[in-house]
Amino acid sequence: MPSVLANPVLIRPVLRCAITALTLALPLAGAGAVLKPALVQAAGASDDEAERLARWKEIQKSIFGDKRIEASDSLIKVDAPVRALDASLVPITLTMPEKDQVAGVHLIIDDNPSPYAAHIAFGPGADPGEVKLRVRVNNYTNIHAVVETKDGRLFEATKFVKASGGCSAPMGMSDEEAMKGMGDMKMKFADSQPGQPVETTLMVRHPNFSGMQMNQVTRDYTPARYVNKLAITRGGQSVLTLDGDISIASNPVINFGLRPGGQGPIKVTASDNQNGHWEHSFTVPSATN
Amino acid sequence: MQRLARIAAAGLAALLLGAASPASTNPADSPVNVPEPEGIWTGPQRGYTPATLSGAHVIDIDALDALMARDAPVLLDVSLADRRPAGFPADRPWLPAHRSLPGAVWMANAGAAPLDPAHEALFLKRVEALTGGDKGRAVVVFCHPECWGSWNAAKRLVLQGYTRVNWFPEGIEGWQERHPTTVIPEDTAWTARAGSEARR
């Protein structure tokens, strides 16, 4: 393994993840369910709840002003691993069972320095039942999802996630390498029945530099360069638009539902904060029985 | 049980790496054997750290708990501050909050190397004030796992003749496995240092 020693900086994130995975996997494998409650309670439950609530109120005000946000179990659910294996790549699932009422959803990672991770506005071409994203988490934090209904009301759900250092974690490669193929896209469609929504995955190649990542050799910060807007349309009809932020993980991936009955190809337009602009088209396969 | 698993995990990781492992007992320990540098470490500040620090005690969370119960040590946090990205949109919330050990004094990046001599002097002056000029007072230095900053800051104190320097390599993550954290502001005198804003 001479490469490990010769180039410790570059290999680091990979090792860190491998080790985290091991530390996590072993106790679970060894002790099964017995240890799980201890892991869950260790920090989250005992942390200063009042302080966390006060911070949420502050963030809430900066984004939504004085508008009331109601708690809801039925309109929005946010799911994430309690303990993330990689803080720079934390999978988030937003579930919105009453999908016909949903106009959009906001994702807020309370303890990230830039808490407002994403806003997704659904168009008529979307099936807003479920959305998945991958985000950076800087600290043990509450993650809030706020759904906006078509009649303009706001409902929230929250989930506590243990991960830290995600916003400043270096990518484990040079900036040039990380930017290779920037703007390339792929789209995958899950098999679907006719008349059912099509689960669709959009993958965008883009480093989404947070501006908080330090080059360990030069000690310079890689300038922030992140996808701030994704617009997905189908046959001229909006599917969704996503306003993103530095809290979205590198190589952004979004998983969403396409409303059945749509026509024409899908067009994706992406732009970043450095005036990068990319467009790609994809053909939706016809449903199979 | 968790602890055993961690030791096993560290051992396993070392095996995977094909490197010799020091007898590691906490997750901040490196799976590779990192030797102590001579003096302050000026290489990449993020990375595996040594298992030892000559002239200081390396403590885990149990030892920290015991020390805090017994000696009310000075807690020094040298974590980096979150840097506001250049050109970050003014209309989006930017609300960095540093969570740390309750009661800790935060001097961001005081473990940097090289460190401007004026800043090093200020750091030492602050520690002198915090310890009441008693070089025998227990001091705990920490940041995050795999962070050389706390190793360096602890080393700086050892080199100044502090006799009860404790380095807590598990850092804030190690602490919050067991205890609540709290949002703390940066030490006021440290924030006022020249050029501090340039680091944000």
Descriptive tags:
heterodimer, A: 289 residues, Immunoglobulin-like, nine-stranded mixed sheet, six-stranded antiparallel sheet, 5 helices, globular, B: 200 residues, Oxidized Rhodanese, domain 1, 6 helices, disordered N terminus
Secondary structure blueprint with pairings:
The complex is a heterodimer of chains A (289) and B (200).
Chain A: H1 2-6, H2 8-31, H3 36-41, H4 49-64, E1 69-71, E2 77-79, E3 90-95, E4 102-109, E5 116-122, E6 126-135, E7 141-149, E8 154-161, H5 175-179, E9 185-189, E10 198-204, E11 227-234, E12 237-243, E13 253-258, E14 266-272, E15 277-282
Parallel strand pairs in A: 1-8
Antiparallel strand pairs in A: 2-3, 3-6, 4-5, 4-7, 5-12, 6-13, 7-8, 9-10, 10-13, 11-12, 11-14, 14-15
Chain B: H1 2-17, E1 57-58, H2 61-71, E2 74-77, E3 99-100, E4 105-106, H3 117-130, E5 139-142, H4 148-159, E6 165-167, H5 171-176, E7 182-183, H6 188-191
Parallel strand pairs in B: 1-6, 2-4, 2-5, 5-6
Antiparallel strand pairs in B: 3-7
Describe the protein's architecture and organization:
The complex is a heterodimer of chains A (289) and B (200). The N and C termini of chain A lie far apart (51 Å). Mean pLDDT of chain A is 84; it is low at 1-47. In chain A, a hairpin with a 4-residue loop joins β7 and β8 (154-161). Chain A is an alpha+beta fold and 289 residues long. The longest helix of chain A has 24 residues, at 8-31. Chain A has helices spanning 2-6, 8-31, 36-41, 49-64, 175-179; strands at 69-71, 77-79, 90-95, 102-109, 116-122, 126-135, 141-149, 154-161, 185-189, 198-204, 227-234, 237-243, 253-258, 266-272, 277-282. Chain A has five helices and 15 strands. In chain A, the strands form two sheets. Chain A has a nine-stranded mixed sheet, with helices on one face. Chain A has a single domain (70-282), classed as Sandwich (Immunoglobulin-like). With 200 residues, chain B is of the alpha/beta class. Chain B has a single domain (27-199), classed as Rhodanese-like domain (Oxidized Rhodanese, domain 1). Chain B has six helices and seven strands. Chain B has helices at 2-17, 61-71, 117-130, 148-159, 171-176, 188-191, and strands at residues 57-58, 74-77, 99-100, 105-106, 139-142, 165-167, 182-183. In chain B, the strands form two sheets. Chain B has a five-stranded parallel sheet with strand order 1-6-5-2-4, with helices on one face. Chain B has a two-stranded antiparallel sheet with strand order 3-7. The longest helix of chain B has 16 residues, at 2-17. The interface between A and B is large, with 56 and 49 residues.
